[in-house]
Design a protein that fits this description.
This protein has 12 helices and 15 strands. It is of the alpha/beta class. The chain is globular, with a radius of gyration of 21 Å. The strands form 3 sheets. Strands 4, 5, 6, 7, 8, 9, 10, 11, 14 and 15 form a 10-stranded mixed beta sheet that branches. Strands 1-2-3 form a 3-stranded antiparallel beta sheet. The protein has a two-stranded antiparallel sheet with strand order 12-13.
Amino acid sequence: MKITDIKVYPVWVGSRNQCIVKVETDEGLYGWGESGLSGRELAVQGAIRHYREFLIGRDAMQRGALWQEMYRSQYFEGGRVLVAAISAIDIALYDIAGKALGVPVYQLLGGKQRDWVPCFATTGAPMGPQLIEDVKLLLAHGWNVIRTVPGHPAGDDPNVFEPRESIGLTAKWLTKLREAVGPEPVLGIDYHHRLSVAEAASFCQRMPSGTLDFLEEPIRDETPEAYEVLRTMTDVPLAIGEEFSSKWQFLPYIERGITNFARIDICNVGGFTEAMKVAGWAEAHYIDLMPHNPLGPVCTAATVHLAAAVANFAWMEVRVSPTENLGFDDSEWFPVQLKLEGNRFRVPDGPGLGVEFNEALAHQHTLKFWEPPHLRRRDGSYTNW
């Protein structure tokens, strides 16, 4: 079965662009994939155009060999743009293989180890009474793993962020939140790498031990040694890895015990081929996967199949809940997709990924240029979003 074409659709769905990839074959089978490099979809599209030139005519069932060729076919190996492109193609090739063999993708990964994939919800409520109301609402709807976002004093400019002004307010209300809901719910926060080591440590030290079950991405990940220092300054479990584009980036975080939850993103790390290697590595160190899933139904379906096939799994991110709906699962765009049932996904039993994309609609639309907030401090200097 030969690859005959690879198409890329960077289109606006909901509140963000999605970069959907279709791989076609000479037997009429096709597969869907998705790239995770949000905000830089045209860069990924360009990389896929390069890969398309030598992938046409290749055997679509040789997923591992094609992964290696894509990764090693240039002097400058790896990097987030190239691996985001490889991820989308790899996921599509697994979709094709599942359809060709008449089995769900997880059967290609060793079979399913669970019938349901549990998820966590996010509330974007500001730090204050609304936060406690939102979390109680989620708990009432059966969500028992809940992520929050950093607070910041109200101001005239939403693009100003001062870490020191944030950590005191956020620690205060997270402490109140834990007191309000008790010890049973799993509570965490995504600080979106906005802090320094000292700021992250101060934040954790302002709350009683046990307030948080996880602290996600408090600082940037380029320097594992910085995270090692932070690890000595707090007992809060760390969730790290959503930006990693290879098993090599995960290496120090797993081998040195820096992360406690692996925030793997199948659309950024290299697709199923690379994700399964990271999962096995994490299992050997008793680290559970807590997948990053801020994209659309293709990423969701791929992540569900990954979650079904691995032993070491905690919870999967979803962006649809009573407190959040970013519109990424629009049924007009994705007429066939996995459906959330309460706070979990049922592991599907159909062939391939179990998702379809409205290609005809995509031809009528195009990418919308979008930038995440370019945050700055009050002195005018830029800081992390």
